[in-house]
Amino acid sequence: MNLSSILSFxxxxxxxxxxxxxxxxxxxxxxxxxxxxxxxxxxxxxRVFGFDIQAQALNQTRSLLIEAGVESRVSLFQRGHxxxxxxxxxxNVPSVQAVMFNLGYLPQGDPSIxxxxxxxxxxxxxxxxxxxxxxxxxxxxxxxxxxxxxxASAVLERLTTLDxxxxxxxxxxxxxRNRAPSLVIVRKKK
Length: 190
Known about the structure:
Blueprint: H1 6-15, E1 23-26, H2 33-42, E2 47-51, H3 55-68, E3 74-77, H4 84-90, E4 96-102, H5 117-130, E5 131-141, H6 148-160, E6 167-172, E7 182-188
Parallel strand pairs: 1-2, 1-4, 2-3, 4-5
Antiparallel strand pairs: 5-7, 6-7
């Protein structure tokens, strides 16, 4: 595996928690690449719930899913990720096997529309409550935009305090690349 490919590294971790019929969340749909990955990984009997506040992101993702023939497995919501627990409760989903976040802004979108520490921390807390035993939460932290450093620091501070009896958490980053994205992985213990 290419060490500098943080996104492929992320998917490798998430895939360990997924199986045919699993339920997963893409908390920040963006261009839809993680949504598509999750839709393929959960199989025809699985479900994926995707969240983004921008219609542009959802439309682009919908097209990607249709092209791949997996759109029936995915429900997209034009809502902030801080509403994921509420949305899953509305759809009678009690737990999920994986939640993925790519924080920051929509690539090729408006860079002034970014994820925010307050809503991200709410979504992280909700995700920790929703993840089933053996499930995985990943957050790719981008720090090269205004507010990115603050959001990353807030996430790391929160996840450092997780009870080790129930969660393992790790922070992966490239040491020789300034402002390269880093990855936080949380696994709920069995």
